[in-house]
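The pair is quoted verbatim below.
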Amino acid sequence: MMVRMMEPQSEGIPIEVYCFAAVTAWTQYERIRGDVFDHLLSIRRRWACGYIRRRRART
C-alpha cells in the first residue's frame, strides 16, 4: 500500500491510496479493496477527519 498526500486544498489535504495485491482473481481483489477502504473510513473518526469524494476529469 502506498499513500500520497497531495497539495492542501481549501477543503483539507487530499490523499491518493494505491493498493497492490498478489491475487489475480477479480472477486478476491474487489474484496481486498473493499476491506481496505472500509478500514480507512472506520478509523477516520479517530482524527476527526472527514472525506470528500471528487471525480477527476479524464484526459
Summary: Residues 2-47 form one domain. The mean pLDDT is 83. The first strand starts at residue 2 and ends at 5.
